[in-house]
UniProtKB/TrEMBL annotation, chains A, B:
<dbReference type="InterPro" id="IPR018490">
    <property type="entry name" value="cNMP-bd_dom_sf"/>
</dbReference>
<dbReference type="Pfam" id="PF00027">
    <property type="entry name" value="cNMP_binding"/>
</dbReference>
<keyword id="KW-0238">DNA-binding</keyword>
<dbReference type="InterPro" id="IPR014710">
    <property type="entry name" value="RmlC-like_jellyroll"/>
</dbReference>
<dbReference type="InterPro" id="IPR036388">
    <property type="entry name" value="WH-like_DNA-bd_sf"/>
</dbReference>
<dbReference type="InterPro" id="IPR036390">
    <property type="entry name" value="WH_DNA-bd_sf"/>
</dbReference>
<dbReference type="InterPro" id="IPR000595">
    <property type="entry name" value="cNMP-bd_dom"/>
</dbReference>
<dbReference type="InterPro" id="IPR012318">
    <property type="entry name" value="HTH_CRP"/>
</dbReference>
<feature type="domain" description="HTH crp-type">
    <location>
        <begin position="153"/>
        <end position="227"/>
    </location>
</feature>
<keyword id="KW-0805">Transcription regulation</keyword>
<dbReference type="GO" id="GO:0003677">
    <property type="term" value="F:DNA binding"/>
</dbReference>
<keyword id="KW-0804">Transcription</keyword>
<protein>
    <submittedName>
        <fullName>Crp/Fnr family transcriptional regulator</fullName>
    </submittedName>
</protein>
<dbReference type="Pfam" id="PF13545">
    <property type="entry name" value="HTH_Crp_2"/>
</dbReference>
<dbReference type="GO" id="GO:0006355">
    <property type="term" value="P:regulation of DNA-templated transcription"/>
</dbReference>
Amino acid sequence: MTSASDIHSKTVLVRKLESIATFSDEERQAILSLPSQTRVLKPGQDIVRDGDTPSQCCLILDGWAYRYKVLGEGRRQIFSFHIAGDIPDLQSLHLHTMDHTLATVTEATVAFIPHQSMRELTMRYPSVGAVLWRDTLVDAAIFREWMIGIGRKSAFGRIAHLFCEMYLKLESVGLASDHRCPLPMTQVDIGDALGLSNVHVNRVLQELRGKGLITLRSNTLVIHAWDEMIQASEFDPTYLHFEQRAAG
Amino acid sequence: MTSASDIHSKTVLVRKLESIATFSDEERQAILSLPSQTRVLKPGQDIVRDGDTPSQCCLILDGWAYRYKVLGEGRRQIFSFHIAGDIPDLQSLHLHTMDHTLATVTEATVAFIPHQSMRELTMRYPSVGAVLWRDTLVDAAIFREWMIGIGRKSAFGRIAHLFCEMYLKLESVGLASDHRCPLPMTQVDIGDALGLSNVHVNRVLQELRGKGLITLRSNTLVIHAWDEMIQASEFDPTYLHFEQRAAG
DNA sequence: TTTCATTTATAATCTATGTTATGTAACTAC
DNA sequence: GTAGTTACATAACATAGATTATAAATGAAA
């Protein structure tokens, strides 16, 4: 639990938003000055539930989270995985009733920011509001890309695509490099995200390993053959809408 | 082709946005005063293409549109169907490169509104901007719901769910009532939206008819057994985030 | 070090849905 | 009114991935 003047927690937010936009110093400062309350949560713990009407949103500072909805007979669909810098329930700012649940994958440190403060920020700095809007639009673009996978790609292509996506998301905020990244979700989680059974996820993982494309051990993914992976999964990063920056 | 002072074209936009929000007279007037250029398009015509960087967005005045992306070997994933009042490419206001294509299903009348005018509107009336943002968030909520269907529901449940959703969307803007609505897409389109082959879509339609749940003829859908349909498809309209209005 | 729970691995069997093929009905365009 | 085109319907066969079952690793807890 930290005080409202804790600036460090929002640097991860600035870093994330700067992967899809640019800010002036004043805008950056306004984001860093947002009030927030930090908390550490256990793995597998719900943060906001389907049906809730939250009055704050949740910034991930460390660890992983995911969004899901449960159906009858134990079926579950996972919509997204989230990492440090993400605000996975930013949509609750304008959709007052949650239509799904947000939960932790790993132990996670999260900062809660009051909706009221977010609204004041977007009113005072409409250009920051536009970036937050943009962030929710990228979120939607990722949903569309997942729809393509679940609807029209093989299990092999789907899993390879997810791995490429997660690697690039982590790399874009400095949490991965050299085609190596953390990947803490279970095979059941991967299946529920991609519309597959855990058994079939396991089969495909063996296949990916057998072909020498990846290593996946102790929650660490290494992609050995990036080009083959993006080709096999028809991966094109356009949909992530990263801000283009001069290389260097 | 109409002049910039054509107010009637924006009344369908106001009607649509009032299905998910409320406006003051001044806000309503500001929306009606947006400049636009109207055009009539043939069925199956692309409006904005994957890779384009449009400087306007497209308001549907009449007819149906849909969004899709094509993969290799003729595979196609449809992301959404759109009706009068929708701005299917509103996301292009903040995502500058299209990551999919928008096209007409039927002959359609559309109004193009310059991004610049939309930006000015959101700057002058932040509350209107919030409603437009909200509209893109509902769009994303519908993507999530489709992911559930494609990932975790049977073909039967998916198709029934789509029919319930389209009926409610049309009803909410006064384009349907009595569980009867237009449904102009082909069985191939339905398959590409729900991750099914056209053959299987046909099988399931026969089954829906055989059980007396629906009639579907000449692009008109009638849902005879609403309760059974929503039960079979696990349909819960919360995700559409309609503005609650006092019944009357 | 043993216990308990979770995750991963693997095999055998089954099924929902895909694929291919063909015919018919409904529109469109002269 | 006929030709061409598109959409719908149906059958036979094929398969990707589901289901069920079991057990081996792994890791946390005591």
